[in-house]
Structures are given as C-alpha cells and as structure tokens.
User: What shape does this take?
Amino acid sequence: MAYIDLQHLSAPEFKRLCGVSRKTFTEMVEVLRSNLERQGQRGGQNKLSVEDQLLVTLEYWRVLST
Assistant: This one.
C-alpha cells in the first residue's frame, strides 16, 4: 500500500496499520530523507519515495515479529 493511500486514514487506523503514530512516522521520514534521497548523485535512483520505503520496512517488521 502506498503512503498516499494512508493519508486519509484517522490516527488510530494509521497506527494500527503502520505500528507507529503519524507524528513518529513523519519524524522517522525526516531522519531518513537526507540519507535516502539521491537525486543527481551517481548510482541508481530510488523508485519509491522515502515515505513508501519506510512504510515497506515497517510492514516487514510487523510481519517478521508474528
């Protein structure tokens, strides 16, 4: 599921799906953004946005723990 699809969810629904609150999610994106955005640099470019990459990681961690 893409991050754009989650923007309309209420706070409890967002936390139930992602495992973290929306505020924590945005703080995590701010920390990751400087390391994951590679526009204009050598090497491969990311196909997913930083938000989508974090969302995939959080979903993976939730599945891995069960």
